[in-house]
Amino acid sequence: MKFYIYNLGCKVNSYESNIMKENLEKNGFIEGSEDNSDIYIINTCTVTNTSDNKSLKIIRRVLRNHPNSITVACGCMTQVNSVTLKELDVKVIIGNRGKSKIVDYINEYIKSKKQIIDITDFKNNEFEDMCLNNFDKTRSFVKIEDGCENFCSYCIIPYARGKVRSKDPELVIEEVNNLIKNGHKEVVLTGIHTGHYGADINYDFAHLLKRLVKIKGLERLRISSIEITEIIEDVLDVLKNNSNLVSHLHIPLQSGSNTILKLMNRKYDKQYFIDKIEKLRSIRKDISITTDVIVGFPSETDELFNETIDTIKKIGFSKIHVFPFSLRKNTKAESIPNHVDDVTKKKRVKELVNLSLELENNYMNKFIGKNVLLLPEVYKEGYLIGHTDNYLKVRVKGSHELLNKIIEVKILNNNYPYLDGEIIK
Questions:
Q1: DSSP 66
Q2: What is the rounded average pLDDT of the residues 278-303?
Q3: What is the CATH number of the domain that holds 416?
Q4: Which end of the chain is more exposed for a tag (fewer CB within 10 A), N or C?
Q5: How many domains does the chain have?
Q6: CATH of the domain at 114
Q7: How many helices (H) and strands (E) does the chain have?
Q8: Could you tell me if 185 and 231 lie in one domain?
């Protein structure tokens, strides 16, 4: 039987979709196409209303276009909204636990022909062990943690993913070693609240980093995202003393206004954030710091939005991922007064996107004329395309034989979104 997986949302979902793909193929299923498969798996996202709508749109399209197929819905949206999917007659509905047992669910449905609904309560659950042997890419994700207990006032994810649950450190080490043996040069540590790894198993994130950077053959270790409060001295020490921990960190700011940060239930103020970034740059001068910012949060006035703009300029991010505030039911933000209208939100999003483009180009221009180390990931029309350790996207003319090999490149010019370069012989 042929299967097709729609993956929506974050890097954790991407990792889990690849786990499902690998398990299905091990058990004799064949990856098909979007137009011709017997099984359709939709790994959903619920981080915003738009995410919900996109997930539902795909599910409805599959049910309409492939009425005789086995439809499977899993992930964050199903965890918090299984009732809608039950009414749509999705054949298999599971939440955020059980993706590693996807083969069992499908075989059970094939045998019984009865709708399966299995939504697990996370209260007393441990980490669901998953181990990926090959990600089919130069860069591979390793999921080390699940769940979040921050309860930011705008966020539904703690309800969709549950409490913090960490993978056994020995299993993390084993998985990374296996990926390296399969030819991967770069590993990305990912989770819902990655920097909170170990809180439930008497371990800590910094200690895991110290062990991973010593693994032979690991050229690059990347953290998918980390909170500013989790960049503690031990983490800074690993960054200072290990060049294979890359010069790029994605650190969500969410707002540059103390008033809004407090309403969001974030765990820092803007000065704390600024001071920590300055410390990071004292260790790695040209480190790339990217971020997330939510605009149009309830009670965000023009004055408070302008405060965010000033904070962003002071920090000097290399890129900003901009999100208009999306109201999620049953979150604390629902009861915060003075909601911002959509027209104002769109205007603020546009302003921040333009600022991000300016900051991104400023950062890219710093590297013109400099030599960088490039890990080519794609070969297209005579060009090698990949990323530097600080996540600059670089394009050079070269042979496909250089794919997945770190090469030295001189940057010639900024041809956004690429930096064009030439290989140093």
A1: -
A2: 97
A3: 2.40.50.140
A4: C
A5: 4
A6: 3.40.50.12160
A7: 13, 19
A8: yes
The Cα-based distances of 377 to 102, 173, 344, 347, 356 in angstroms read 30, 24, 40, 36, 25
**E-strand stretches of 213-287:** 220-223, 248-250
Q: Residue 265 and residue 243: Cα distance in Å, rounded?
A: 34
Q: What percent of the chain has pLDDT over 90?
A: 83
Write the pLDDT tens digit of every residue in 29-61: 999 999 999 999 999 999 888 888 999 999 999
Cα-trace Rg, the chain = 22
State the average pLDDT over residues 295-313.
98
**What one-character-per-residue DSSP string does 313-328 give?**
HHHT-SEEEEEE----
Residue 208 in this model has a pLDDT that exceeds 60 = yes
Domain match, 316 and 408 both: no
The number of residues in the chain equals 425
What does the pLDDT average to over 354-381? 97
Q: Is the pLDDT of residue 231 over 60?
A: yes
Is 361 in a helix, a strand, or coil?
A: helix
Residues 6+ apart with CB under 8 A from 84: 56
The pLDDT of 71-91, averaged and rounded, is 89
pTM comes to 0.89
For residue 417, what are the domain limits?
A: 371-423
Using alpha carbons, select from 69, 56, 71 the residue that is nearest to residue 8. 56
CA distance to 140, 386, 388, 391, per residue, from 401 (Å): 20, 14, 18, 22
Per-residue tokens: 349:
């999003």
92 and 142 together in one domain: no
Helix (H, G, I), strand (E, B) or coil at 165: strand
Q: Rounded to 5 degrees, what are φ and ψ at 26?
A: -60, -25
* Residue tagged 């300055």 (tokens): 278
- Which amino acid, 187? V
Token duo for residue 111: 């045998």
